[in-house]
Design a protein that fits this description.
The chain has three domains: about 160 residues, Ubiquitin-like (UB roll); about 375 residues, Creatine Kinase, Chain A, domain 2 (2-Layer Sandwich), CATH 3.30.590; about 120 residues, Up-down Bundle (Four Helix Bundle (Hemerythrin (Met), subunit A)), CATH 1.20.120.1560. The chain is α+β, with helices and mostly antiparallel strands. The radius of gyration is 28 Å and the shape is globular. The longest helix is centred in the last third of the chain and has 51 residues. Strands 9, 10, 11, 12, 13, 14, 15, 16 and 17 form a nine-stranded mixed β-sheet that branches. Strands 1, 2, 5, 6, 7 and 8 form a six-stranded mixed β-sheet that branches. Strands 3-4 form a two-stranded antiparallel sheet. The protein is built from 22 helices and 17 strands. The structure holds adenosine-5'-diphosphate (ADP) and magnesium ion. Magnesium ion binds next to loops.
């Protein structure tokens, strides 16, 4: 296909593997179509009588596209997606098969899924879990090699209905937010809105490394990051990669990624080179959060699959290379009514402004009160290398609002909203806000949670993480503030609504002003200031995970029906276990690489160098020859010691009782032992003749395309 044809075809290609609204209109009887639309709009399951008709229409469509199988596609607590395929075939008495797909098969599946993490929710003898279709996320077709399958986005629960996945709590949190936001809107006099949805735009960063080089790095294969590697002579100091012109090989790759994503109905929109060499970004247009999270999973999967076809490996790890920037995933978040009003967009009328301020305060209050939970939602072994490392936000949650909004909030706190720099007087519900130029709110890249004109950008999530967790916390924390606001506004009383609101927002301003910070989040001064303000600083994964287990947090999720009393601790357990497992795998990989690749290579090189030194003896050995030999033998010695240290640390972690203690040992013993081993190895690498180093170097991986 030449380029011209391709661009002409984009509109017809887009979503052509999705059972989308156009296809549904074409293929479904009117009553089924309408019932499905109602179910999607109200976020409830489809009537079982209609499901058979729908399933049959889906099957016919899928078969026309070449599908032989269907699968319930779900998101267990591993952070990646899971799928188990079944063929449409059904045997006949004549010994043949027909292609069948029932409403029941569409709506519900029963994978024997005992091997997924459940955090103690489910004993292996109760292996049965079930998956059920999330009809608000469209069904689609995916082609993997010669295999074509109908994918049904699903949630995954235990036999007793406990959530075992990342979708169920997300859907519940969306419901919670919808419920409370509608109460607030009604109390503010809005009678039209029938639903409030959360919107998500996920900016995804990644690295591309030549596949042949990556294949020779066990650390990249097993851990997704390099455990060793001396820096290349050039890093990112020239800032010449960021937004630079695309390398042709990368551009061709991006073109195929886009095409795949467009077929799947993902609005891949923006692409560019990122800060670090060999680092890139892709961003879609925002959409409803559960679909956005599903689509981000498809983005990550597509980035990786297409990479292989282009002889790349796509690294989604938060910190694949020391010394250059790591990768994050910005979570752009807002709330929108079904009639299209963005609740975080300042409006033109006093009424719209009031509504905006109420929702803005709800976010501010939610983020301040549940900062520990929000921090825990991005706690993850990989993200520890990034948060607080002066390339990503610190581990302290604060909110950037920009000068103008901050001033408005200060005025509300003082109780008289007058004489702002930008506006002469502001009476809630009576006067309008000054126009907020988008530029004034979009320049602080160091803030973990920044208002960017008509949405918030949560910048802490790691590049490899599912965005479900952070959005579950955000939605529920904001739902809680909205619940309190609605309670206050609905309370019978004589005071004028605006007066009551003014009073409430004044209290909120006083209580939560501490979380607003517009300065440079990378500085030590901010850390000290945050401590003075009493903001939690949960420096790494284990601190954050240990802090999440408070009655206050558990009560929040129970009150809004997002996590039950048993589900909540199970999440903590899974995250702690996953942290410990990741660190232990790094330990094992490091031992493997040093014992089987690095040490043997250095010893061989040292032997050769010793022979060189003796051969030169007769001529008087030149200093550099002897010095190199000494560096090698000293390095071998030091590596031996560091290996022992790592082995002892791993033994300690393995012997620890309980997952939390094991996690702490991983943090306090294994991680430092890995760093100590790395220091020795990297120093040696920098001295070794390049032909004798057994691993591809940073210079090769980051610069050879
Ligand atoms: P940048 O952060 O690079 O300045 P943009 O402002 O264009 O980029 O947006 C980044 C992401 O935010 C995009 O994915 C975009 O679709 C998304 N976004 C824009 N508006 C909203 C919204 N109301 N809700 C959620 N995401 C949004
Ligand atoms: Mg951004």
């Amino acid at each position: 296909m030449d380029t011209c044809d391709k661009s002409r075809l984009v509109p017809s290609l887009f979503g052509s593997w999705v059972f989308n609204d156009t296809v549904m209109r074409e293929r479904l009887p009117k009553n089924v179509y309408r019932a499905l639309q109602d179910a999607i709009r109200d976020g409830r399951p489809l009537d079982s009588g209609l499901a058979d008709i729908l399933a049959s229409a889906m099957k016919d469509w899928a078969i026309e596209k070449g599908a032989t199988h269907y699968c319930h596609w779900f998101q267990p607590m591993t952070g990646v997606t899971a799928e188990k395929h079944d063929a449409f075939i059904s045997p006949t008495p004549q010994g043949t098969v027909i292609m069948e797909f029932s409403g029941r098969e569409l709506s519900q599946g029963e994978p024997d899924a005992s091997s997924f993490p459940s955090g103690g929710l489910r004993a292996t003898f109760e292996a049965r879990g079930y998956t059920a279709w999330d009809c608000t996320s469209p069904v689609f077709i995916k082609k993997d090699g010669a295999n074509t399958t109908l994918f049904i986005p699903s949630f995954f629960c235990s036999y007793h209905g406990q959530a075992l996945d990342k979708k169920t709590p997300l859907l519940r949190s969306m419901e919670a937010l919808n419920r409370q936001a509608l109460r607030v809107l009604r109390a503010l006099g809005n009678e039209q809105a029938r639903r409030v949805s959360v919107t998500l735009g996920a900016e995804q960063e990644y690295f591309l490394i030549d596949r042949r080089l990556a294949a020779r790095r066990p650390d990249l294969l097993f851990c997704g990051r390099t455990l060793f590697g001396a820096p290349a002579p050039k890093g990112q100091e020239m800032d010449d990669h960021y937004f630079g012109s695309l390398h042709e090989r990368v551009a061709s790759y991006m073109s195929e990624v886009n095409q795949q994503l467009w077929l799947l109905g993902v609005t891949a929109k923006t692409q560019h080179n990122e800060v670090a060499p060999s680092q890139y970004e892709i961003a879609p247009i925002f959409e409803v959060v559960n679909v956005g999270v599903d689509h981000n999973q498809l983005v990550m999967e597509t980035l990786q699959k297409v990479a292989r076809r282009h002889d790349f490996i796509c690294l989604l790890h938060e910190k694949p290379f020391a010394g250059v920037n790591g990768s994050g995933k910005h979570n752009n978040w807002s709330m929108v009514t079904d009639d299209g009003v963005n609740l975080l967009a300042p409006g033109d009328t006093p009424h719209e402004n009031l509504q905006f301020l109420v929702f803005l305060f709800a976010v501010l209050r939610g983020v301040d009160r549940y900062a520990d939970m929000l921090r825990a939602s991005v706690a993850h072994a990989g993200n520890d290398h990034r948060l607080g490392a002066n390339e990503a936000p610190p581990a302290i949650i604060s909110v950037f609002l920009g000068e103008q909004l901050t001033e408005i909030i200060e005025q509300i706190e003082k109780g008289h909203t007058r004489s702002s720099k930008a506006c002469s007087s502001l009476q809630l519900g009576v006067s309008t806000l000054p126009p907020l130029p988008k530029d004034s709110t979009d320049r602080n890249r160091t803030s973990p949670f920044a208002f960017t004109g008509n949405k918030f950008e949560f910048r802490m999530p790691g590049s490899s993480q599912s965005l479900s967790g952070p959005n579950v916390v955000l939605n529920t924390a904001v739902a809680e503030s909205l619940r309190e606001i609605a309670d206050e506004l609905e309370r019978p009383g004589t005071q004028d609504r605006n007066v009551r609101l003014q009073k409430l927002l004044r209290e909120y301003a006083r209580e939560h002003r501490r979380v607003i910070f517009n300065g440079d989040g990378y500085t030590a001064a901010w850390k000290a200031e945050a401590a003075r303000r009493g903001l939690p600083n949960l420096a790494s994964t284990m601190e954050a995970l240990e802090a999440m287990a408070t009655p206050k947090n558990q009560a929040l999720f129970e009150r809004h029906g997002v996590f039950s009393a048993t589900e909540y601790p199970s999440r903590q357990e899974i995250m702690v276990e996953s942290y410990a497992k990741s660190v232990l795998i790094e330990g094992k990989t490091a031992l493997h690489m040093v014992r089987r690749q690095i040490l043997p290579a250095v010893m061989a090189a040292a032997g050769e160098q010793a022979r060189t030194v003796s051969a030169l003896e007769a001529y008087g050995v030149p200093g550099p020859a002897r010095e190199l030999l000494q560096a090698m033998t000293a390095g071998i010695e030091a590596m031996g010691k560091a290996l022992e240290g790592l082995e002892a640390a791993m033994a300690k972690a393995r012997a620890a009782e309980g997952s939390v203690e094991r996690g702490r040992r991983c943090r306090d013993d294994i991680r430092p032992a890995l760093v100590a081993l790395r220091e020795v190895v990297d120093a040696l690498e920098a001295r070794m003749p390049s032909g004798q180093w057994p691993l591809p170097t940073y210079a090769e991986m980051l610069y050879e395309l």
